[in-house]
Amino acid sequence: VTVSIVGVGLHPFGRFDVTGREMGLTAARDALDDAGISWSDVDFAAGGSRDGGHADALVSELGLTGVPFISVYNGCGTAGSAILTCAQAIESGAAEVALAVGFDKHARGAFAASPAEYGLPDWYAEDGMMVTTQFFALKLQRYLHDHGLDARLLAEIAAKALRNGSITPHAWRRKPIPADEIAAAPMVNDPLTSYMFCSPSEGGAAVVLMSTEQARQVSDRSVEVRALQFRTRRFGTFEVFSPWLAPEITAGATVDAARAAFEQAGIGPDEIDVAQVQDTEAGAELMHLAECGFCEHGDQARLVHDGDLDIGGKRPVNTDGGLIANGEPIGASGLRQIIECVLQLQGRAGERQVPGDPTTAFTQVYGAPGISVCSVLAR
Amino acid sequence: MRSTLTTHGVTATVDGQEHLLGARCGGCETHTFPVQSTCPRCGGAMVETALPRGGTVWSCTVQRIRPKPPYVGPDEFEPFAVGYVDLGTVRVESRLDGKPVDQWRIGDAVHLVAGDPDGVGDVWSYRFVPDEGGSS
């Protein structure tokens, strides 16, 4: 049994005067409308939120139908876990129509993390080392050093994100900023300036799934989930919140999840028309492009300079502005990526539509404490 | 060596010199910092071990904005350098002291100092500082 997406719903990302739950409800209802079904047709649901409330409590407003509703939490991979849970329920025959939903509403500023929740000693945070932005900078500094890449690329990548965000109605950051201005912004963790980071934000996202066979009966624009893979880190990887690293660094969770996804889908990175990758900051997009297999390590400079990553380029990446333009509501972020791919594959992406009638898409999320969820979508 | 090892949780004193206190797997020789009881690679039992005092900077950055709580630095926040120091058997994350924050480079030779560098009192911590005549 393969699984397809028949409806998508997105509450815009940004800052709003409504609760996280309300954004989740809006996304869920829009997804049901988009699928042309009602909540009572749904026989399985999964969802997650870090700070917005309990996902399963959405049944109070959606309707008390008795539907099984699994609440999940996997940091930045939360939305990926929600859709994976739904897809597996359909594949196993336990469900026919499933709704995956994610929503969140975070306080301003960088995420604060509790060391005890990660099995880390208190001094690690008290001494100022348990900081996600610091990890990205440390991984990036070594990466730029090892592969001879110029930090200027980071400003170019952030400028692309904001350029794409400026033509995306649901995006939070709608103002394009020139690369020079991004490079000259205040430094947060060298070499990353404040304009190169995504910020915690608010939003909601939902998709309706069915078996591909059923989806083709009810919709002429369904998008097949060709692969969906979740991985945690293996020994020797370089991950966030690591007081120590092994002397030999091995491939991280993203490499494993992406490789498994391409294997499951039976196609390679070269055959992907449009991709959304985790750009928690500009360096994350840079590194994840190679980790996912879209280029060799060090080859990113050529992709950026040739405009390959732009809408209209050879393989557009983060076409709705990614996390940099949308911010990150943790529970919703991974579903936003999938929804953006669905809209691109359906030709419904408006001003930011990738030309050439794309048929294949890819998404990747990365999160603490070293997890990744990757998907391959096709119509 | 064990006979002279006294620990303060994060560091240990061996023959009058401070070391970071790590753990070594008896089976596969994996080292961790800080101490953990079972090996993250093979699941074997680990024993406490004093890590080398000196190494080289493997990656570094600057923390230029005040981290959120539970960070407990001084009231007047000053940007600090932070990085991973390659000790051979393991790379440890550490704050880097002893020269201007933006002058740290990958490959700099460093050694451990332990104590209470911020003078805050409730964080008993450690830093790596440049070797004299180090590589930078």
Folded structure, characterized:
By secondary structure, chain A is α/β, with parallel strands linked by helices. Chain A has 13 helices and twelve strands. In chain A, helix 3 (78-91) packs across helix 13 (330-346) and helix 6 crosses helix 10 (282-291). The two termini of chain A are 16 Å apart. The relative contact order of chain A is 0.20. Chain B contains no helices and ten strands. In chain B, strands 1, 2, 3, 4 and 5 form a five-stranded antiparallel sheet that branches. Chain B has a five-stranded mixed barrel with strand order 6-7-8-10-9. Chain A binds chain B through residues 109-112, 114-115, 121-123, 125-131, 134, 137-139, 141-142, 145, 186-191, 235-236, 242-247, and chain B through 9-10, 22, 30-34, 40-41, 58-65, 67-73, 80, 82-84, 86, 88-95, 102, 106, 122-125. Strand 9 of chain A pairs antiparallel with strand 8 of chain B.
Task: Offer a few descriptive terms.
heterodimer; A: 379 residues; alpha/beta; 9-stranded mixed beta sheet; 20% strand; B: 136 residues; mainly beta; 5-stranded antiparallel beta sheet; 5-stranded mixed β-barrel; globular; disordered N terminus
